[in-house]
Structure formats: structure tokens, C-alpha cells
Amino acid sequence: MHVTADCAGPEGRCFFKTQANLLTPGGPIGLPQDTWARQTITLRSTNRSVWQEAWFSAPAGMPRELKGANHDNVLSKGYQSLSDYQLSITYFGGGPLQRFATDGDSVQTDWVSGRPNLDAGFIVCSNIQAVFGGVNVTTPSACAQTTFN
After folding, report:
1. Residues 52, 111: Cα–Cα separation, whole Å
2. pLDDT for 58-74, tens place per residue?
3. How many domains does the structure of the chain reveal?
């Protein structure tokens, strides 16, 4: 599991990307065709007074969603709470690396002022459980943390 995060601009927008893959001696590859997998991505701030609202593409490159969708048997759903935003992505079937990439952006909004919070840090964590060929693998959480430039 790979996770990246970047925050830039006065509008308080942070960007994230996750990538799941199998690592072979020849390098990273996608997952086998008989794969079923569930990925969880959590977006949050270092400041608990920040509201997260996210738009995402699962797989990456598909139209951005706010609540969820089904693109080529990749089902996604967003769940919002008071202090974080969680994505649940379910994959039916394997494929190339691109199928297991998710990207998106989030606006960190201050609860009190209603304006973008440029002082708070942005944290993205993700893990995936994949089942294929009689193997059941769960990755540890991979996280990325950043602040505004």
C-alpha cells in the first residue's frame, strides 16, 4: 500500500493518492483476476476542529465522486463524520496497477469560521484486505502527512 498527500493553495485544498499492488522480484504488479479486496482510506486533520469534505476517483481517472459509485466493478462509498472522511472501496476482480489506484482532494474547513484552515496538517491513511487464490492478505496502514506550502 502506497499513500501520498499534498496541500497547496489559498482555497485549503489537499490532494491524496493511494496505490495497492503486489511486489514481485520484477517490481510492482496488479492483483490476480480472482481477487476480492476491500480498501479503507481515512482523511483527517491534525486539528479536530476541521471539517473534511472529499471528492475522489476510484479507480483513479474516473469521474470524481462525493458519495460513491460503481466503475467497472470497483464500488466506492464515502462516509463523513465530524472530524474525518472515510472511503470504503471494494474491488471485484483483479487487473493492472491502475485499477487499484485511488485519488482525490479534500477541503479542510474550519468549524468556527467556515473558511479553509491553512494551519492544520492533513493526514491520509489506507490499508487493504485482498483475497485471491486461497490467500488472504491484510496490509498494515500506510499513512502520509503534510501541511500547506
Report:
1. 10
2. 999 999 998 899 999 99
3. 1
